[in-house]
Amino acid sequence: MKHLILPLAFAAVSAFALPATGACFADYKAKQDNPLKLHYGVIELPDTACGSPDAARPVVAQRIGSDGWTLLNVLSIFGPEGLEQRKASAGDFYLRY
Questions:
Q1: Which of 36, 43, 78, 94 would give a disulfide with 82, using CB separation of 3.0 to 4.6 Å?
Q2: What is the pTM assigned to this prediction?
C-alpha cells in the first residue's frame, strides 16, 4: 500500500501541471471610432492564452487590431461546448480572427 501512494501522488500532480490541449475560445467586445461601430465576436485562442481573460487580452487585441478594431473587453474563455450558443450573437465576427 505504501508504494502506491508516491506514484499516485506524482500522477495527480502531473495531471494538474500539464497544459490544456483542447481548443479554447474567447468572446469579446470591440469598437471602431469615426463613426462609432461596436461588435461582439468569438475568437479561437492558442493554448498559452487560455488561462484567463487577462491572458487572452493581448492576443485578441492584436488580431482584431489589424482591421482597426480596439478591444474593449474579453468577456469569457470557454471550450468548444460554448461555441454554438454564441454563434448567432457574433454574426460576421464568429471565428473571423
A1: 78
A2: 0.75
DSSP 31-94: EETTTTEEEEEEEEE-GGG-S-HHHHHHHHHHHHHTTT-EEEEEEEEE-GGGHHHHHHHHGGGB
Digit-coded pLDDT (tens) for 26-81 = 999 999 999 999 999 999 999 999 999 999 999 999 999 999 999 999 999 999 99
Angle at alpha carbon of residue 95, lines to 26 and 84, rounded to 5°: 75
All three cell numbers of 8, joined, read 499516485
3-state class (DSSP) for residue 96: coil
Which three cell numbers mark 88?
A: 448567432
Nearest 10 degrees: Cα torsion 78, 84, 85, 91: 100
